[in-house]
Amino acid sequence: MPEQSEDEGYIALTKGRLESLSDGIFAFAMTLLVVGLGLPDKARIIQTSEFAIDLIVSLQSDFFHYVLAFLVLGAFWIGHHLMLHPVRRVDKAYVWLNLVTLMFVALLPFSTSFSGDFPGVPIGSIVFEANLFAIGMGLFSQVLYSTNNHRLVAPSMTRESIQSLLSHNLLVPGVSLAGILIALGGNTSSTMVYLALPVIDIILHKKFG
Predict the structure, then answer these.
(1) Of the candidates 80, 118, 127, 193, which lies 20 to 30 Å from 180 by C-alpha distance?
(2) pTM for this prediction
(3) 90: exposed, middle or buried (C-beta count within 10 Å: 0-12, 13-18, 19+)?
(4) Where are the beta strands (DSSP E) in the chain?
(5) For residue range 89-122, what is the model confidence (pLDDT) as tens digits?
(6) CB within 8 A of 187, min separation 6: which ones?
(7) Distance of alpha carbon 29 from alpha carbon 31, whole angstroms
(8) 7: Cβ contacts below 8 Å, ≥ 6 apart
(9) CB neighbours (10 Å) of residue 7?
(10) 109: Cβ–Cβ under 8 A, 6 or more apart, which residues?
């Protein structure tokens, strides 16, 4: 256990250790996503081109969710790096916020596989979108906590920079919430809303930089 200092709850845990743990879990989760693309046992028995083609087609939902989850996780990893860059030191509350966020990162391979296995059921999309929503809100809460009254960041960090970080970290949660609401309405293609992420990101970049 890290030793607690007497300086307002800050702990003897370097930002580098936190980044190393986060990078490892992101890398593990991104690698584990491919496990959801498993083949059925009968694929070893039926060795025909027709069956192979039908099998690939039947896995299109799994492939879509794999690619989507991998790219979104990659965006989360980049956002996590940008979020930690201005942080000068960490305290216990920030460490726990990061750990809870990583818990949902590690859960994403399961929710991705679950969603791919139930492409025609709204609950499949909701589980996946709720997972992404939780990760996004976890990152947002870390930015909000670290920048509030410049708690963990340099006093010289501008209000515009803080606003930019906050707005970008609300992007995926906002789209995920929209997807959940669409799925609750019975639409089984609600995950398609994530295709709008690049466009919204460009708009935010032009507005906040």
Answers:
(1) 80
(2) 0.85
(3) buried
(4) none
(5) 899 999 999 999 999 999 999 999 888 888 878 9
(6) 122
(7) 5
(8) none
(9) 9
(10) 29, 32, 33, 35, 36, 69
